[in-house]
């Protein structure tokens, strides 16, 4: 159990019999009356966001999420197959859970699966990944005075804006949080 004084962003709690992740919270103490907490919660399963107000000092059960290190194997239609590197179990994860992370998944790469009582809830990517440029236009010297960019399509289908000196076949480090080019790998 956790009280309102110990809340922090990103924590997953059980609220109204649902798994809810704390998106934002604010302690409010008025001149008269008791203190309360405004919470913004996101349902982990459905993605719905709820704003609620609770009394300060209330307690909530914390959801014990397990993290599994898995290796990405392949994609078949809307299912992504992973393999637990310790137990060799191969969970299938739907596109609705993988979401935008699909653009960063390469075969044999390791990611973390967040599970609750055996149910896969989320995929945690590393902060950056190395992807190969599949298609881009050639950049020409003298095209610009400074900082010109061009579009590039990576091996996973991700579209990234890159500097002019990047060519097809180059391996680039891409930030998974923002989807932007970091550097050549």
From TrEMBL:
UniProt feature coiled coil, ranges: none
Start and end residues of each Translation elongation factor P/YeiP central domain: 67-121
Top-level division of the source organism's lineage: Bacteria
Predominant cellular place of this UniProt entry's protein: cytoplasm
Keyword Glycoprotein annotated: no
GO annotation terms (biological process): peptide biosynthetic process
Domain Elongation factor P C-terminal: 129-184
GO molecular function: translation elongation factor activity
Location of this chain's protein in the cell: Cytoplasm
PROSITE patterns assigned to the protein according to its UniProt record, in alphabetical order: EFP
HAMAP family in UniProt: EF_P
Record's function text: Involved in peptide bond synthesis. Stimulates efficient translation and peptide-bond synthesis on native or reconstituted 70S ribosomes in vitro. Probably functions indirectly by altering the affinity of the ribosome for aminoacyl-tRNA, thus increasing their reactivity as acceptors for peptidyl transferase.
Family the UniProt entry places it in: Belongs to the elongation factor P family.
Protein name stated in the entry: Elongation factor P
Species this protein is from: Kouleothrix aurantiaca
Taxonomic lineage of the native organism: Bacteria, Bacillati, Chloroflexota, Chloroflexia, Chloroflexales
């Amino acid at each position: 159990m956790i009280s309102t004084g110990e809340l922090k962003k990103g924590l997953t709690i059980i609220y109204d019999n649902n798994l809810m992740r704390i998106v934002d919270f604010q302690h409010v103490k008025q001149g008269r009356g008791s203190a309360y907490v405004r919470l913004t919660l996101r349902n982990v399963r459905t993605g719905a966001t709820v704003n609620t107000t609770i009394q300060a000092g209330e307690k909530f059960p914390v959801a014990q999420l397990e993290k599994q290190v898995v290796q990405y194997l392949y994609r078949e239609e809307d299912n992504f197959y992973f393999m637990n590197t310790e137990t060799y179990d191969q969970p299938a994860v739907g596109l609705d859970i993988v979401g935008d992370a699909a653009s960063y998944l390469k075969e044999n790469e390791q990611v973390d699966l967040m599970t609750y009582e055996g149910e896969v809830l989320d995929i945690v990517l590393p902060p950056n990944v190395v992807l190969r440029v599949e298609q881009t236009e050639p950049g020409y010297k003298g095209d610009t005075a400074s900082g010109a960019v061009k579009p590039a399509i990576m091996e996973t289908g991700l579209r990234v804006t890159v500097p002019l000196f990047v060519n097809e076949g180059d391996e680039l480090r891409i930030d998974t949080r923002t989807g932007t080019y970091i550097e050549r790998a």
